[in-house]
């Protein structure tokens, strides 16, 4: 129907969930779309799959005002204006978002939380505590739902590191250990595996405790 012909839209959290669906719908309706997300790999893959000359991307962090402004400037440069801005990920105050973390549409994050590298939040998740690296969460409030296996695969981790992450998740979440004891056991067992540094730091330096 081309209801959005000649319109320009910026969509954040654009590679998954509502963000991806919104991008595809807007393109179908004739809009040009700038996709914004944290992971350049995910953005590149999405652009290839969508296969439209009216879509492009910007790798940015919606928690940073400067990145939001850069997205607007880029849309102005590429398309000549901005008519629609779709904000799919929301954060409050200062939030640290690790490399490769994925916040799906309508994820809300409490101020001062740390979102671990290569973690994943599902649609509509409300995050009030730190999320460890590589952990997948969903719900209100967020609870752990397993490891982000896709994120782990994309990092091409060694079998030793992958096995260590799986064991660490069991220690932390499945064996009813006290948090302090779980942390100590994980550090003791896996501190010498360099690829485990991200996970160990994310549970050791948690400012607001971690999702449990």
> DSSP strand (E) fraction?
15-25%
Average of pLDDT: 90
Q: Percent helix among the residues? A: 25-40%
Number of domains: 2
| Number of DSSP strand runs | 13
CATH class of the largest domain: Mainly Beta
Unreliable runs, pLDDT <50, ≥5 residues?
A: none
Query: Topology as H/E string?
Result: EHEHEHEEEEEEEEEEHHHH
**Class based on secondary structure composition and strand pairing:** alpha/beta
The strand order across the widest sheet is 3-2-1-4
> In angstroms, what is the radius of gyration?
19 Å
CATH topology of the largest domain: UDP N-Acetylglucosamine Acyltransferase, domain 1
Task: Write a structural description.
By secondary structure, the protein is of the alpha/beta class. 38% of the residues lie in helices and 21% in strands. The protein has 7 helices and 13 strands. It has helices at residues 17-28, 40-50, 65-79, 149-154, 159-174, 179-190, 197-204; strands at residues 8-12, 32-37, 55-59, 84-86, 89-91, 96-97, 102-103, 107-109, 114-115, 120-121, 126-127, 135-138, 143-147. The strands form 4 sheets. The protein has a 4-stranded parallel β-sheet, with helices on both faces. The protein has a 4-stranded mixed β-sheet with strand order 7-10-12-13. Helix 5 runs antiparallel to helix 6.
Question: Layout of SSEs?
Answer:
Elements: E1 8-12, H1 17-28, E2 32-37, H2 40-50, E3 55-59, H3 65-79, E4 84-86, E5 89-91, E6 96-97, E7 102-103, E8 107-109, E9 114-115, E10 120-121, E11 126-127, E12 135-138, E13 143-147, H4 149-154, H5 159-174, H6 179-190, H7 197-204
Parallel strand pairs: 1-2, 1-4, 2-3, 5-8, 6-9, 7-10, 8-11, 10-12
Antiparallel strand pairs: 12-13
């Amino acid at each position: 129907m081309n209801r959005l012909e000649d319109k320009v839209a910026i969509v954040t959290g654009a590679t998954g969930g509502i963000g991806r669906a919104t991008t595809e719908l807007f393109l179908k309706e004739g809009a040009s779309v700038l996709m914004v997300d944290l992971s350049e790999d995910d953005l590149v893959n999405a652009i290839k799959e969508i296969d439209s000359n009216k879509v492009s991307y910007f790798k940015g962090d919606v928690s940073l005002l400067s990145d939001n402004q850069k997205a607007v400037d880029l849309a102005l440069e590429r398309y000549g204006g901005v008519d629609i801005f779709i904000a799919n990920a929301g954060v409050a105050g200062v939030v640290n978002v690790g490399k490769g973390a994925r916040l799906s549409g309508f994820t809300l994050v409490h101020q001062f939380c740390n979102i671990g590298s290569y973690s994943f939040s599902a649609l509509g998740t409300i995050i009030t505590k730190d999320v460890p690296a590589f952990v997948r969460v969903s719900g209100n409030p967020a609870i752990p739902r397993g490891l982000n296996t896709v994120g782990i695969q994309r990092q091409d981790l060694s079998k030793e590191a992958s096995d260590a992450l799986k064991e660490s998740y069991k220690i932390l979440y499945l064996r009813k250990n006290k948090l302090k004891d779980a942390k100590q056991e994980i550090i003791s067992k896996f501190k010498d595996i360099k690829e485990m540094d991200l996970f160990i730091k994310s549970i050791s330096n948690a400012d607001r405790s971690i999702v449990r």
